[in-house]
Amino acid sequence: MNILVTGGAGYIGSHTCVSLLDKGHKVIIADNFYNSRKSTVKLLRQITSKEIPLYQVDVTNQSAVNKIFSEHQIDGVIHFAGYKAVGESLEVPLTYYWNNIISTLVLAKASRKYDVNRFVFSSSATVYGDNEVPFVETMNPLPTTNPYGETKAMCERILLDFSRANPKLSVALLRYFNPVGAHESGLIGEKPDGVPNNLMPYITQVVKGKLEKLKIFGNDYPTKDATGVRDYIHVVDLAEGHVSAIDHIQKGAHVYNLGTGRGTSVLELVKAFEKANGIKVPYEFVSRRPGDIAICYADASKAKREFGWTAKRDVIDMCRDAWNFENQSKSLVEYK
Ligand code: UFG
Fold first, then answer.
1. What pLDDT does residue 79 have?
2. Could you confirm whether 148 is annotated as catalytic?
3. Which among 77, 152, 163, 317 has the fewest CB atoms less than 10 Å away?
4. pLDDT for position 143
5. 177 pocket-lining for ligand 1 (C-beta < 6 Å)
């Protein structure tokens, strides 16, 4: 199939392009490089030895998006492009609502106009809010603590209504847990600008000497070792989940968790990193981060049952590949 991947130069998008191309699909990337780099597309061509048409466009621009649909016979859309920083979304909520929702509407309208009937959306486990674990797709979403999370819940709702009105449409709403790690080549991975918000890039930058020590947010949670618990998933497993989804989705709108089903605490992840790479991670405990929940992990059985996908890589693989990427990738300036 020819798959339009919006945000295809981003962290999860780029790994998904590799997995799609590996499985014989063709990929067209639309990205405005707001939070990604053009050089990543070159690296994708290098990793896969495949042609990848690239459109440098903002996906909120309807005529620019229509142009892509008119120039290619597109069979499916995977929509990653979106703003994703929880803290930033509290500072500039309108920017988040505008970008994340308008881009989804624009793509849905173009899909309708050009009769493209497969649509995969990047959602997030954040829509479960502070539900009981494990999070199951049948649970009612709860209000999230931030505009970013709300945009994910709203886009799910928009696509659900879109599919109800268009019986030919197949929509997969993929709720990601905590993607970490990198492609085994070390050429693509997570490269946040500035000080990272997420745990794994913070750890790699501490070990690299770019940051002094890891601040563990809270050691008073009701968890196995009092630190926060998350379902970390290797980004390549997550990418393969998208290929399974685009290949197998049925008519209608369907929600799938993409997680491993295992909870790992912050301290366990630190220990796994030390074991995988033979390096100490200096850390200290600080107070909880506002908005964080104690425990989050998936019931990952639905994706396995319905499209045969399951995460194969463990936390040691994630830590090894994240560190390999940090060591291989050049400094931001050289990289751009
Ligand atoms: N943590 C630290 N120190 C840090 C960063 C994180 O102790 O410097 C802790 C957090 O408190 C949490 C865990 O590490 O317990 C994971 O934190 P992340 O920031 O890496 O990830 P979150 O679980 O907070 O959020 C991630 C994505 C969101 C997404 C959510 C879905 O960033 O976009 O997973 O569950 F919505």
1. 98
2. yes
3. 317
4. 87
5. yes
Closest ligand 1 atom number to CA of residue 293: 15
> What is the DSSP code string of 131-146?
PPSSB-TTSPP---SS
Whole-prediction pTM: 0.97
In whole angstroms, give the CA distance from residue 55 to residue 70: 13
> How does pLDDT run across 76-116, given as a tens digit for each residue?
999 999 999 999 999 999 999 999 999 999 999 999 999 99
Q: What is the pLDDT at residue 11?
A: 97
Q: Determine the distance separating the centroid of ligand 1 and the alpha carbon of 50, expressed in angstroms.
A: 34
Whether 285 lines ligand 1, by a CB cut-off of 6 Å, is no
Q: Give me the helices (H) in 115-213, please.
A: 147-165, 199-207
On average, the pLDDT of the chain sits at 96
Phi, psi (deg, nearest 5) at residue 129: 60, -140
Active-site entry in 96, 148, 176, 297: 148
Paired tokens of 253: 């709108």
The pLDDT of residue 190 is: 94
Taking the domains of the chain in order of start, what are their residue ranges? Answer: 2-180+232-258
Is the pLDDT confidence value at 254 over 90? Answer: yes
84 in ligand 1 pocket by Cβ < 6 Å? yes
Whole-number Å distance between alpha carbons of 172 and 190:
24
Report d(CA 100, CA 158) in Å as an integer: 12
Q: Which CATH architecture has domain 2-180+232-258?
A: 3-Layer(aba) Sandwich (3.40)
Cβ–ligand 1 distance for 129 under 6 Å, the answer: no
Helix, strand, coil share of the chain (percent; to 5): 45, 15, 40
Q: How far apart are CA 199 and CA 204, in angstroms?
A: 9
User: If we measure between CA atoms, which residue out of 263, 264, 256, 262 comes closest to residue 308?
Assistant: 256
Kindly state if the Cβ of 131 falls inside 6 Å of ligand 1: no
